[in-house]
Each structure stands twice: as C-alpha cells, then as structure tokens.
Amino acid sequence: DPVALRGERWFLGRIYHYPGGGVHHGVPLSNYGGWWLVGATILGLFAWIDRRLPAEPQRAGAGLGALFYLSIMAFCVGVAGWIGAWEVAVSGGLIASPIAALALGRALLGQPRRG
C-alpha cells in the first residue's frame, strides 16, 4: 500500500488515501492487520489443499502460495524503486527478506509429509 499511495507517480494514479495517514509511509497499521488476516487465510487454504494431494504433486507444488505472495512483494519493491520511493523500496525489501528466504527454501526443498 505505500506504493499504491504514490500512484500519481506511476500508471495506477491516485485511487485512494488514508485521511489520517499512518505510521508506515502513510499507511495505518490496521491496514496491515487486514492484509495479514487475508494472507493467512489464503495460505492456510493452500496448506489444507496441499495436505490432501498425493505425495508427488505435493512436493512439486510445495510453497507455491508463499511464492505467490513473494512475487507480489517483489513487484511492489520493484515499482517503489522505479518511481524513486527508495525509503519504501528498502523497508519493503527488509520486511520481505526473511519471508523470501523461507519461501525459497520451501519451494526448493519441499516439505516432508507427516503421518
């Protein structure tokens, strides 16, 4: 959302704003709580589906949900850099780095089946 708030600097345009602003580059923390809830729900559904797949497809698709979210984050960090919002790009990159490492590890190594 810090990148979307700077929409007038790229093709998105100014589509919304937070009247009271927020502590993270103009975005209130409650916004991130909502995104966390949506992301956790979707990743939970992906994990539930993965556990019901046969062993081979499960290993082949391990971590796709996390990689999907990582690709969105990479896009946002890239756009932030492209429009010159370096403080947003750097903070987004720092936030995404541990998530990226976990997602990449799971995608490359898979997750052993339990039970």
How would you sum up this structure, described in words?
With 115 residues, the chain is mostly helical. The protein contains 4 helices and no strands. It has helices at 29-51, 55-60, 64-82, 86-109. The protein is elongated, with a radius of gyration of 17 Å.
Radius of gyration equals 17 Å
What is the CA–CA distance across the termini?
40 Å
The poorly predicted ranges are: none
How many E-type strands? 0
User: What does the average pLDDT come to?
Assistant: 80
The fraction of residues in strands falls at under 5%
Main beta-sheet annotation: none
The helix/strand order is HHHH
Count of discrete alpha- or pi-helical segments spanning 4 or more residues: 4
Overall shape: elongated
Question: What brief labels describe this structure?
Answer:
single chain, 115 residues, mainly alpha, 4 helices, 0% strand, elongated
In short:
The chain is 63% helix and 0% strand. It is built from four helices and no strands.
List the helices and strands and how they pair.
Layout: H1 29-51, H2 55-60, H3 64-82, H4 86-109
Helix pairs in contact: 1-3, 3-4
